[in-house]
């Protein structure tokens, strides 16, 4: 009974070694008759590729999920504001604006709109409401104040969304720069061609297009690339289709067969 248990121990895969003894023979792992077989290069490469495939698939799956959540997050914060900005069709050159009214209000009822909001998804009980007069002609440094305005008492926003997050948007600094004691009498502003009541302080066509392209292209590229690699590795239908194509390419086409038959035809030989 002890001989059988010793034989099973020597042949068990737990020792990670294989014996070259004949079937039915037994030997201790430390004996000179026991010769372990080293794994071949093909087995090592296969094992390495399987581990690489597992960890890479895990990373690609995580990247695909994060790309979906990133795209859903960017829709209300980047994609939608960029589309609204493009549809507003702001004038390429800044016009001339001057503050006509500045109100610092409190409570929700008095802050139904605001020139600047720190946070685009929250409501504020304190806000700055700035209105401006607009002259639709190019702004020039040290130009005199216009005597006539094309529009008066328009709502003045910090950007097309009217909101943002620090440090890019600071509503206290914005109100001080445009409606404070040291604010200039006239300053450049951008007006909309399709929405006459919309006037903003900051606008850039290049920044808007760049943000829209990045928000659409980057998550989509990561998602499509990750899903394509995962489908190629783990989708059996794709694997069968690729193998079928390779198998079909191993046979000669009808045109090649016809050329071979013409070459072998003895009637074409010249005697």
UniProtKB/TrEMBL annotation:
Domain of life: Eukaryota
Compositional bias ranges of the Low complexity kind: 1-10
TM stretches of this protein: 54-79, 212-233
Cellular component GO terms held in the UniProt record: plasma membrane
Renumbered residue ranges of the record's region Disordered: 1-36
Keyword set includes Transmembrane: yes
GO BP annotation list: regulation of sodium ion transport
UniProt name for this protein: Protein tipE
Organism: Euphydryas editha
